[in-house]
C-alpha cells in the first residue's frame, strides 16, 4: 500500500515535522529526481565535450596518438641524438651560437656510427615536405634523403673538441620534383659538381634553417651526414615511414610565376596559366552526381594538375590563405549561414589552415579555389577511365579517389581525386593514412549515404569534390597507440556506469526509507483513531458552532 502524500513529502515552507518522521530525515524521491537529472546533464555535457576536435586532439596528445594535424612518431628506434640535446635549437631561424652543443653532438654521432648501423636506424626516405612540416618528429632521428646534387661548398666549422676542421655543405634538389632544397652537411668531401648528379645521404635531421634568397625568405631542412652516396639507395626499409614525396614528374614544367599570390583567386589564376578553360565550370552543378555535361571540365582539370608537383600546389595554397580569407570575409553577408562560414574561416585562419565549411555550404563561390588540408585518408580506390573519350583527350586512363576527414569536417568526408599515388601509399576501403591534400575545388558531389529515409529510399548526402596531383603522405601514427575513439568509448562507458551506480544507491536508500516509513505507518494505523483503511468512518467530533456566535472583528 502506498504511503499517503502527507507521509512522503513535507513542504519546505513549514517547520512542522513529517507525520511519521523517524529519528533523522532520509533521502526522498525529490532528491533522487534531482540526482537523476544532474547525472544525465553531466553525461550529456561530457559527451558533447568529448565530440569537440580540441578534446580529440588533447586526448591524442595525452595517450600518444597523433591527429592528422600533429606530428607523428616514425616507426623506428630511438633518436640517435637525445631530444634534450636540442633544447636550444630553434626552427625557422639562422644558425645561432646557442645551437653549437647540439650541432657538434649530431656531428659526433654520425662520425662515430658505422654506415650500416646508420642505415638500419633510418626512418626511410623522407622528403622536403615532411621535414619542413614535422621538424619535431624527425629531430635527432636518422633519415634518408635523395635527389640531384646542385652545389657543393667547403665550410669551416666553429672551434670544437672533436677535431673537425672541415665540413662540406651540399645543396640537394629532392627526388619528386620539389623546387625547394634540402641541405646536407657532410664530414667527408663529396664529388664536385661539374653538372648535377644523383646522390643520397643517411644522416641526422637537425633543424629548419631560415635563409635569404633573391625572392625573399626561404626554409631548408638541415641534415648532418658522414658522406654522400652517389648511388641512390632510397628504398624504404621494412616498417619505415612511407616515402614523403610524389613520384618524379617527367612532364615539362610550364613557365609560371610561382613566387607571389595573385590579387584575385590564386586557384583560378593558376588554372588559367595551366591552360584550363574556366568557362567549363559553367556546366558544373552542385549537389548532384557527376553528370555527362561535367565530364569535359572534370578531366580537363585532372589533366591540368598533372603539370604541377603536389608540394608546389601545397605551397601556393598556403601562400594564398590570407588573400582567400580576406576575399571571403569581405563579401560575407549578414545571414546566419554567412556568419557561420565567416566564423569558421577566421577560426581556421588563426591556425594557418583552410576551413572546410565553405566547401560544404557555398560550392559556387568556391569553384576553382586552390586549398590545402591535412587530413586522415580512410579510403582509396582506383577508378578506371579508359572508356571515356574526355579522359583520353587529356591523357588519362585512370585516377584515384580518396575519402578523407579533416579536424573540422565533423566526421563528414571530403572526396579528393588525384592522378597518382606516391610509392607505398595504401589502397583499400579501411585504411588510416595521414596526408596533405592540395587541390582545386570542383563541386559539391552527391553520394548515397548509409542510412535510408522514412520511405525506404537511399539518403543522399553531399561532399566537397577536389582535384589534385597526388597526396603528400605524412608520418603515420603508431598502430599500437590508443585511439581517441577508444578513449571516448571508455570514458562514455565509465560515465554511464557511474550514473547507473548512483541511481542504484539512491533507489536502495528510497526503498529502505519507504519500508521503514510504511512499517511505522502500519503500526500507527492499528489503533481505531487512525485507521486509514476506513476513512469514511472518521467524523468530526468537535461541537457545532452556536447560532448566536458573533464572528470576531477583523
Structure description:
This protein has 16 helices and eleven strands. It has helices spanning 5-8, 29-50, 53-63, 100-112, 115-121, 128-133, 135-138, 266-273, 295-304, 310-319, 321-330, 336-349, 357-361, 363-366, 389-393, 484-524, and strands at residues 142-155, 167-174, 182-186, 197-213, 216-229, 370-384, 398-405, 414-418, 433-452, 458-468, 472-473. The chain has a five-stranded mixed barrel with strand order 1-2-3-5-4. Helix 2 packs antiparallel against helix 16 and helix 11 packs antiparallel against helix 12. The longest helix is centred in the last third of the chain and has 41 residues, at 484-524. The two termini are 45 Å apart.
Key structural traits:
globular, five-stranded mixed β-barrel, 11 strands, 554 residues, alpha+beta, five-stranded mixed beta barrel, disordered C terminus, 16 helices
Amino acid at each position: 500500500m502506498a504511503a499517503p502524500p502527507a507521509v512522503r513529502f513535507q513542504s519546505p515552507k513549514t517547520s512542522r515535522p513529517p507525520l511519521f518522521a523517524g529519528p533523522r530525515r532520509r533521502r526522498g524521491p525529490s532528491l533522487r529526481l534531482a540526482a537523476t537529472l544532474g547525472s544525465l546533464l553531466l553525461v550529456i555535457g561530457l559527451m558533447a565535450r568529448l565530440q569537440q576536435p580540441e578534446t580529440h586532439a588533447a586526448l591524442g596528445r595525452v595517450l600518444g596518438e597523433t591527429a592528422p594535424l600533429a606530428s607523428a612518431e616514425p616507426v623506428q628506434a630511438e633518436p640517435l641524438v637525445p631530444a634534450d640535446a636540442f633544447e636550444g635549437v630553434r626552427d625557422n631561424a639562422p644558425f645561432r651560437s646557442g645551437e653549437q652543443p647540439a650541432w657538434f653532438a649530431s656531428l659526433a654521432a654520425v662520425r662515430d656510427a658505422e654506415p650500416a648501423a646508420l642505415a638500419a636506424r633510418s626512418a626511410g626516405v623522407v622528403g622536403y615536405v615532411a621535414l619542413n612540416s614535422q621538424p619535431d618528429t624527425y629531430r635527432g632521428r636518422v633519415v634518408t634523403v635523395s635527389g640531384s646534387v646542385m652545389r657543393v661548398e667547403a665550410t669551416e666549422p666553429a672551434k670544437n673538441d672533436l677535431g673537425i676542421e672541415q665540413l662540406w655543405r651540399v645543396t640537394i634538389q629532392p627526388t619528386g620534383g620539389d623546387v625547394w632544397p634540402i641541405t646536407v652537411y657532410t664530414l667527408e668531401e663529396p664529388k664536385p659538381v661539374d653538372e648535377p648528379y644523383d646522390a643520397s645521404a643517411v644522416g641526422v635531421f637537425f633543424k629548419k634553417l631560415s635563409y635569404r634568397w633573391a625572392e625573399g625568405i626561404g626554409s631548408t631542412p638541415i641534415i648532418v651526414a658522414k658522406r654522400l652516396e652517389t648511388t641512390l639507395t632510397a628504398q624504404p626499409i621494412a616498417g619505415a615511414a612511407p616515402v614523403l614525396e610524389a613520384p618524379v614528374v617527367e612532364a615539362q614544367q610550364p613557365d609560371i610565376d610561382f613566387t607571389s599570390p595573385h590579387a584575385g583567386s590564386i586557384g583560378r589564376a593558376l588554372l588559367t596559366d595551366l591552360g584550363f578553360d574556366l568557362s567549363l565550370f559553367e556546366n558544373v552543378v552542385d549537389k548532384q552526381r557527376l553528370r555527362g555535361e561535367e565530364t569535359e571540365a572534370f578531366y580537363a582539370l585532372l589533366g591540368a594538375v598533372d603539370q604541377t608537383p603536389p608540394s608546389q600546389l601545397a605551397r601556393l595554397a598556403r601562400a594564398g590563405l590570407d588573400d582567400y580569407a580576406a576575399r571571403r570575409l569581405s563579401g560575407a553577408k549578414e545571414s546566419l549561414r554567412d556568419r557561420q562560414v565567416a566564423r569558421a574561416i577566421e577560426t581556421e585562419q588563426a591556425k594557418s589552415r583552410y576551413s572546410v565549411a565553405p566547401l560544404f555550404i557555398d560550392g559556387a563561390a568556391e569553384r576553382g579555389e586552390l586549398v590545402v588540408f591535412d587530413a586522415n585518408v580512410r579510403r582509396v580506390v582506383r577508378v578506371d577511365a579508359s572508356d571515356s573519350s574526355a579522359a583520353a583527350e587529356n591523357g588519362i586512363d585512370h585516377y584515384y579517389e580518396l575519402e578523407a576527414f579533416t579536424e573540422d569536417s565533423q566526421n563528414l568526408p571530403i572526396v579528393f581525386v588525384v592522378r597518382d599515388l606516391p610509392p607505398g601509399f595504401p589502397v583499400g576501403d579501411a585504411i588510416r593514412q595521414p596526408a596533405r591534400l592540395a587541390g582545386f575545388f570542383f563541386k559539391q558531389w552527391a553520394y548515397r549515404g548509409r542510412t535510408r529515409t522514412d520511405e525506404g529510399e537511399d539518403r543522399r548526402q553531399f561532399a566537397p569534390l577536389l582535384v589534385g596531383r597526388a597526396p603528400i603522405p605524412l608520418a603515420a601514427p603508431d598502430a599500437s597507440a590508443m585511439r581517441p575513439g577508444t578513449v571516448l568509448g571508455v570514458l562514455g562507458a565509465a560515465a554511464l556506469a557511474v550514473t547507473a551506480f548512483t541511481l542504484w544507491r539512491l533507489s536502495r536508500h528510497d526503498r529502505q526509507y519507504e519500508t521503514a516509513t510504511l512499517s511505522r505507518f502500519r503500526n500507527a494505523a492499528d489503533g481505531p483513531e487512525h485507521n486509514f483503511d476506513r476513512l469514511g468512518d472518521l467524523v468530526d467530533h468537535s461541537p457545532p458552532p452556536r447560532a448566536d456566535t458573533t464572528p470576531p472583528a477583523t
